Amino acid sequence: MSRARRRADRIRAEIPIQRVLSDYGYEVDGGYDGEQQFSCDLHGDGVDIKPSARVYPDSGSWYCFSCDATRDAIQTVRDKEGIEFFPALRKIEERYRLPTMPFEEGDYDTTKGAAHGASKEVAGLLDPSKTFEDDQKRAHTLLDGVTVDKDLPMLDTLKLWEAFDKICFVVRKETLSEANGRIALAKIRKRTIEKIKESARE
Ligand SMILES: [Zn+2]
């Protein structure tokens, strides 16, 4: 099971849907675990005089007859905040103070399909005693040097920085595991060094 799935399952198991709704100001009793009818603001002009929605705490979801949609806690947050799946997970975990879900062995293989082939390509560049942060510093130092010394054409340098920033961003947002982030950073280091060699030959 993927880490994202485990995070979603934990939210469904630990955060009552009626609590999520009442925290958004919906007229439901957040502490009551029976079904309740309430007004939904997610359809039409947001006014729902004859309450169209009903919460089903047993299934951790609610259904709105006017939206014709079933929503769990995550979908509710996505629709209320206009955000994607991962930011919604993060928001709920912060709001209800769920501790960071640890990574498991299998997560590294499944988060990004290409990672396995790529890891062979850069195997020699990955030091198992180092962390993602170490590799981040290392790649940053390398790119800094390239930029200062003008080893490469500016456009190539900028592309490498852009790739570096993107990896740091997705790892920070947890859409990429640190292990796969390390592989991606190692590829950038490899590409940078290859490009320096190429341009030195020219
Ligand atoms: Zn609705």
Polypeptide structure, described:
- The chain is 55% helix and 7% strand.
- With 202 residues, the chain is of the alpha+beta class.
- It starts with a helix and ends with a helix.
- The protein binds zinc ion (ZN).
Q: What share of the residues does DSSP label as strand, in percent? A: 5-15%
* Uncertain spans: 108-115
Strand order, main sheet: write it out.
1-2-3-4
Largest sheet: 4 strands, antiparallel
* Structure summary, number of beta strands: 4
Radius of gyration: 23 Å
What layout of secondary structure does this protein have?
Layout: H1 3-14, H2 17-23, E1 36-38, E2 53-56, E3 61-64, E4 69-72, H3 73-81, H4 85-95, H5 107-110, H6 115-121, H7 132-149, H8 154-172, H9 178-201
Antiparallel strand pairs: 1-2, 2-3, 3-4
Helix pairs in contact: 1-4, 3-4, 6-9, 7-8, 7-9, 8-9
This protein binds zinc ion.
The site of zinc ion has 8 residues, from loops.
